[in-house]
Specification:
The protein is 17% helix and 29% strand. It has a domain of 85 residues: Sandwich (Immunoglobulin-like). It is rod-shaped. It is α+β, with helices and mostly antiparallel strands and 184 residues long. β2 and β3 form a beta hairpin. The longest helix is centred in the N-terminal third of the chain and has 19 residues.
Length: 184
Amino acid sequence: MPRFCLPVTWFLACLVLLFAAQAQSTFGSIRGTVQDASGAVIPGALVTVHSLEENFDRQVTTNDSGDFVVENLKAGHYRLTAHHDGLSDAVVSSATLEARQDLRIPMTLKIAAAPTIVEVNDLAVQINTENGTLSDSIDNQQITGLPLNNRATTTSPLGALALSPTCNRTVPETSRWAGRVRRW
């Protein structure tokens, strides 16, 4: 064999080993499904994967099937948090990802309790319990504006007819009955 072929052969062998070593990735992935307590999937949930060792976050949103996948993660320990409005957060405090592992972690969100807020204000109207004085009075116009059934009898159209000067109470001298005369 010629002398220059040996170094070229070693160089090609090292080059092949280098490419083969790079082809084997050490990254892994975390995937899962976010669902509620009844088992229904939750699309649009925000899933945060936090590296406990390197202190970085990766966030993804679940698809229409409630599935999520976070790829190209280094081997290590991670904390997962799933969040959706109206539901309480689901937290997996520690998940260990090995090299070239496809780790599946299902997450379940529960219905969040509605917060109750009671606001006390000291500007409320106070009731006078010391004496019997009135603190409010109303005038005649407000009283006549009250809706009562028996108040406006004189303004009734029928009442106006009875008081009308055009209303005549006399009966003609002759009646329809056999020529008799009626008198009042």
